TrEMBL record:
Protein name from the UniProt record: Protein NDH-DEPENDENT CYCLIC ELECTRON FLOW 5
SUPFAM superfamilies: Galactose mutarotase-like
Biological process (GO), any one: carbohydrate metabolic process
GO CC annotation terms, alphabetical: cytoplasm
PANTHER family hit by this protein: APOSPORY-ASSOCIATED PROTEIN C-RELATED, PROTEIN NDH-DEPENDENT CYCLIC ELECTRON FLOW 5
Any GO MF annotation of the entry: glucose-6-phosphate 1-epimerase activity
Length: 383
């Protein structure tokens, strides 16, 4: 059962500004400084006990506190949706505390706005809203040893700051920390006239190194995968892998799922039936590198690929919608590409592809007292 996006809910929380640390990696070359009034500084204390639920935030208070930046808030019960809007018509809808971006609409050459992301909302067994697709984060932190135990997985994001204005660009900064404040991940969402930036800053204040694995996954809406092409990947190495685990990942309608786990884990039988090109060694995690020979890669077949040395920028072209999207990455060595194949109805809820900036095959090493930066850029060149 499909539900309206206005029914989505989330809670807003606030944290104080973190101290500066040593950094590595640079931001995207296209990132520009966003003017901010230093006199309008907002810092809110955390509750003393991290496990205690935060109190609901008054939406009217948020509107008054953050007015003038081009961001509005819609409350549903104890929850809210943040909408970023520029004067040129570009908009982004951001869910809190999940950090899920459910919508990115941008003006096109023909004068109308077009939705670039693909998000679905369905009703769960208990009547709850299940949101999938969009742009989502899925990261795990663990110690730098042979222990596979996950130390921390950031999921509940806290609103930290909003900068910019509706004329040029808007920047929303979210933050997530461990209960001991020893590991921190910042998520900075920036909307410009023709670009949506999703940038991360991971800080390790521990005395021991950490490993970070995971991905930024972006579901792009298309007319049909059969009319969609990835341009610029020729001579890149890739390996075929099962779809990346994520609560927000959209699976094709014919793929089975393990009961009770939604789209987070697909069962082994369904993977073998629907992706016969995966050998048993690939399902179990062994890599078999292949060189991409097509610079105009057709996405009409079912694929789930991790590219290990792809260009920092490539283009997705949709002939059906007569538009293109440029995808860029920074800080990540791996790029993920998924297509459900051409066996879906045109312009339906299953007409999408997924791209991701990932650290799946090779974890990102966070040295002690160190900050890592990386992110993704979705650029609309069709203005």
């Amino acid at each position: 059962m499909t539900m309206a996006l206005s029914s989505l809910s989330c809670s807003l929380h606030f944290t104080p500004t973190a101290s500066a640390r040593q950094t590595t990696h640079t931001n995207f070359p296209s990132t520009v400084h966003i003017p901010h009034n230093p006199l309008h500084k907002r810092e809110f204390p955390l509750p003393l006990v991290a496990s205690v639920p935060y109190q609901p935030i008054n939406v009217d208070y948020l509107e008054g506190e953050f007015s003038g930046h081009g961001v509005t808030f819609e409350g549903v019960g104890d929850s809210c949706v943040a909408k970023m809007e520029l004067e040129n018509g570009s908009t982004v809808t951001l869910m809190l505390p999940s950090g899920l971006i459910t919508s990115y609409k941008s003006p096109m050459w023909h004068g109308e706005k077009m939705e670039l992301l693909h998000t679905t909302v369905s009703e769960g067994e208990n009547g709850e809203a299940i949101i999938q697709g969009g742009v989502s984060l899925n990261f795990n932190f663990q110690t730098d040893d042979d222990d596979d135990e996950v130390l921390w997985s950031p999921t509940n994001w806290v609103l930290h700051d909003i900068k910019g204005n509706s004329e040029e660009s808007i920047q929303v900064e979210l933050i997530n920390r461990t209960s001991e404040d020893m590991v921190e991940l910042k998520y900075i969402v920036t909307l410009r006239e023709d670009v949506l930036l999703s940038e991360l800053e991971a800080s390790n204040s521990r005395s021991l190194p950490l490993q970070m694995t995971g991905s930024i996954l972006s579901h792009l809406t298309v007319s049909t995968p059969d009319a969609t092409y990835a341009v610029g990947l020729e001579r890149s190495n890739y390996c075929s892998k099962p779809p990346l685990a994520s609560d927000f990942f959209l699976s094709p309608p014919d793929l089975g799922q393990e009961e009770g786990l939604g789209n987070k884990i697909w069962n082994l039988l369904s993977q073998k039936q629907n992706f016969p090109q995966w050998e048993s060694s690939q399902i179990e995690g062994e890599e078999e590198d292949t060189e991409e020979t097509d610079n105009y890669k057709h996405l009409g077949e079912q694929i789930s690929l991790i590219y290990t040395n792809a260009p920092r920028n490539f283009t997705v072209i949709d002939r059906g919608r007569r538009n293109s999207v440029l995808i860029g990455r920074n800080g990540f060595d791996e790029m993920y590409l998924f297509s459900p194949g051409s066996g879906v109805e045109m312009y339906s809820k299953d007409a999408y592809i997924c791209v991701g900036q990932a650290a799946h095959l090779k974890p990102i090493l966070l040295s002690p007292k160190h900050v890592w930066k990386g992110g993704q850029r979705i650029h609309n060149p069709n203005l």
